[in-house]
Fold these 4 entries.
Entry 1:
Amino acid sequence: MNDTVDRLVVFLAKRDGIDKLVKTFQYVSKLVHWHVESTHPGIALRARNWEVASGLSRKAFRTGRFLTGFNALRRSPGGASPGMRILAVLANAGEMVYFFFDHLLWLSRIGTLDGKLAKRMSFVSAFGEAFGYVFFIVGDIILLEEGIREERKVMETEEGTIKERVGKIRGERVMRAMGMAANLADLVIAIADIEPNPVCNHPVTLGISGLVSAWAGWYRNWPSS
């Protein structure tokens, strides 16, 4: 019990940890609003207010987040293949556009900037988000395939420390798969902003996508020890 509490404290001390918790609030409240909208209007209104407040809180908390794209590129390993480096540049460029215009979207929604800009900022932010996620997903697929090949190679040629190495490879594969799940879910949410449609914009689709993204991020950020 104490160990779980300690891990929770460490998790919530991270910016991403708080973001995933508030994101959970945001999309649970969206699902609650959809479920009780026709039967309990009062509860539905409260859920809707909670969803909006959570969304705005997340945007405020992520101020300056677009700079992480520069840091990610700066820290990218020099040994990466040219193809992977190109994917990283494109993915992080899309993410930087997403977060930068997301800041402007937040300012327009709270009235600091002209509210008429909100729709335009939302489109540009979502487009950058979707653009980046496409390349993040492609990169994850390539790295997952490389991990599978490496595991097979270890199983065929190594002895003694096989279990430890294979365990590490499989652990990295799970984290990569969680990243892919989060990126795919966020891509659905971005598409809903770019090109509204009955499937992506349905409250259940958005709610489940948001929770998949939040909980995959929760898993990836949860301290191992």
Entry 2:
Amino acid sequence: MRWWELTWPEFERADKTVALLPTGIVEAHGPHLPLGTDALMAVYLAEEAAKRTGALLLPPVWYGNTYVLDRFPGTISISSETLYRLYRDIFREVARNGVKRLVVVNGHGGNVDALNMAAKEVARETDLTIVVVNWWIDLAKEARRRVLETPEGHAAEDETSEVMAAYPHLVKEVPRDADEWVEAKYRVYGREVYEISYRKAVQGYPSRASAEKGRAILEAAVEELVALVEDLKKGVLPVRRK
């Protein structure tokens, strides 16, 4: 159920056990993928899981934070402080509206710190349980190992394959010289290293991408996300005592 399409009486009657929130960013993804890639993929997964489980689907948060790719045209980066406050206020409102468990389907690495900070704060002050799923890390691990030939990255084989499978009409032809891979020995911050690392807004090998690989990854990711939502509906948290 799409939260924003319900009337308030419909929302009042709706099952509010589990809700899904997709988060991403508007950011350069090579010369071949759309600026909204991270948000689009989070939306795709959250929508599929909501359809299969009947969970509430919140409007996506399209904006995020990047400290590397904001020099490319079209990127929109908001500050980490603003992002944290936005997430915090959304979580508070989700709790106030009676949702018991919230699954954040996050599609962008630059959002992680703000999401974690906001989740910790709201979890302390409300009864809301928040599960943050950084989907490209947490889901479809076995499928990725099985189908990918090159390292995962940014607008790379993995991400390009996924967009090919979910939104083929938004993928441009991958240029022959699009592949780009740079490794750093330490964590290095600064304009100089950013310019070296992302000359084309790519980190990886998009030339090896295919829709078939993307479908394999997405099918596994949706199945795992659906299983998580179903468990949460039963009161089973993704925590195991060893």
Entry 3:
Amino acid sequence: MRAPIGDFDDARPAPDCLDLLTEPVAEAVRRWNGPVPAEELLFVDTDPEKADTAVFVEAYGRDLLDASANCVVVSGKRAGESSLAACLVLSTTRVDVNGAVRRQLGARKASFAPHDVAVGETGMEYGGITPVGLPADWPLLLDAAVTALPHVLVGSGRRRGKLIVPGKAFLQLPGAVVLEGLGR
């Protein structure tokens, strides 16, 4: 099957590629339910050496620049307590950590989670973190621009491979909250 975005010759439904996903992502695909069926989540194999955005779009299609999203783990702190959340924004924008994220989490301070915390808490590889398969009790902050796209390229839980997901499907994920201006 040809992918709806990018220059990928082999796009396969994610339920057919569970062995290529990290366990949390594979489990989320197994349990997927809602108006967008799991078969509409597509897996495309990619070279992990080309995972960084600029190199990636050069190799797999310039149209991906406007259809790619980054998922980052953030930490909010208030009164000595920390909480984790994930943010999904277009790759052409930056997460408004000190504004939108901090306010949404009700935190006094918000920052990007340390590398080891992000990897350890998600069970995913750094550079491949995806909103599919995150801990269900985390807030998942979605930039409205991401959910408006017909198809979005996101990580697969590993640096090798990506998922192509209908933008509206992110609304089905646990803890999903849409925020205007999350990405700036």
Entry 4:
Amino acid sequence: MWLEYAFPNDEAEAERLDMQHAMQSHLLGDRLFWAPITETPQRVLDLGTGTGIWAIDFADTFPSADVVGTDLSSIQPTWVPPNCRFEIDDAEADWTWPEDHFDYIHNRNFVCAIRDWPALIQKTYQHLVPGGWVEWHEKHPEFSSDDNSLPPDSALVEWSRKFFEASVTFGADVDSPRHLKRIMEETGFVDVEEHILKLPVGSWPREPRLKRCGLFEMVNMTQGIQALTVMLFTRCLNMTPEEVELFLMSVRKDVKNKSIHSYYNFYVVFGRKPPLPS
């Protein structure tokens, strides 16, 4: 097991993360969150903030909120709203904030980054105020099609299989989004909701919003798939860099194939810490 982040940390990756922000917000109906939080949140935590774009947008939208974004990497801008700040921190390390502190905790895209989800969700429970909400937005990159247009022996299906296998070896199983609702309920959260959205790859959907999301994800899968793949496949599957690059050529070909109507699931899961008795 390697105690490190599985993906790169450079300008190209920062641009990819900002593009993912645009795509995922659009997938959610041009919204930053779905949890029914109050109109005047006070203390907000954005775990794994990345470039900080979600935290900045949230701070602009809610001037009442004191928004802190945390990440292992210091890639956030210095020009930010006065009610937003960033800290270098590991979400799986001991938290230094007081318990019963945050009104709302948000995370997005912790795929292949967390090794102990029950422990992390327990931390969010302890550090939320009674009645506070936590919300997860997570990809489950198992590709499917509803019209059998995705051949079972396609490179895209094979990439998905290899990615899941590598994530287990890495110690951060990407199957985790399927278990978030159960873990939250076992931790003690109430009013837990799980929404599973189809995230298309390519421009094949007829619905305009999904078509735009599919175009975003096609760019992500063609331009960003190397960043998502090389370290995991070379370290965890013992593939050579040359083997990975050759394989990714076939994956990109599938992604661009207009006859393949592929998608994967995007999980939106939120719940609240039980409020104090009235």
